[in-house]
Amino acid sequence: MSEPPKIILDGGAIPSWQAFHDAFATKLGFPAFYGRNMDAWIDCMSSLGDADAGLTSVHLAPGEVLTIRVTGQKALQDRHPDIWAGLVDGAAFVNWRAIESGKRALIALACHD
């Protein structure tokens, strides 16, 4: 059995929204036309279970969940509460959208400092 998909986001290394979007675009293979805003982030993250969408290079099998392990969470939350809130709210919306369409949640956030 393969290991469930996960990425590590170093919150201490996220100094700006640009760096936030760069990190996710790189780690999850967002397309070149990725809009680098939370609406575009939500669209890409919502497509994790749909390989045909072409919005990520990481694809979840049915029932799989992507774990986003956030290290340096306190540093991110203290320095950039807007980015932290965007990540939490965005992940919650992606999961809500999936559940509303009869699927399982797609994202799990894990953090500890």
UniProtKB/TrEMBL annotation:
It holds the Pfam family Barstar. InterPro entries: Barstar, Barstar-like_sf. It comes from the Bacteria. Residues 7-89 form the Barstar (barnase inhibitor) domain. Belongs to the barstar family. This is Barstar family protein.
